């Protein structure tokens, strides 16, 4: 009998236009308003002339490989943009300091190293290019 109640509630919600919540694989982009700046010391690489795409990855993360490809393509298309990949497991202090909770996480930094956008999950190329608009 409990199954009927659950199915009835789910059906009623669907009939009333309440979409089911889906989180897996969805990319969420949000602006950041703190003034923390990242540089060569934290990233282990030079910042891009106009912007830097910082990717936090882990060894067994399949979406991280696809994200690496997308960010590499965008960095190749947009002059002055650099892609830096950071192994989250090897840089736990930085992961904690930046409140990185899953991989892949992509930070978009402006030329001064200030975080202007953040996305979790596998991004689409168009979303990355749009997010760069805030940095350049």
Describe this structure in words.
The protein is of the alpha+beta class. It contains 5 helices and 5 strands, in the order αβαβαβαββα. The chain has a 5-stranded mixed beta sheet with strand order 1-5-4-2-3, with helices on one face. The chain is globular, with a radius of gyration of 18 Å. Mean pLDDT is 82; it is low at 1-16 and 18-30.
Please specify the SSE layout and strand pairing.
Blueprint: H1 2-15, E1 28-31, H2 40-43, E2 51-57, H3 62-77, E3 81-87, H4 92-97, E4 105-110, E5 115-120, H5 125-132
Parallel strand pairs: 2-3
Antiparallel strand pairs: 1-5, 2-4, 4-5
Question: How would you sum up this structure in a few lines?
Answer:
With 136 residues, the chain is of the alpha+beta class. It contains five helices and five strands. Strands 1-5-4-2-3 form a five-stranded mixed β-sheet, covered by helices on one side.
Give a quick set of tags describing it.
22% strand; single chain; alpha+beta; globular; five-stranded mixed beta sheet; disordered N terminus; 136 residues
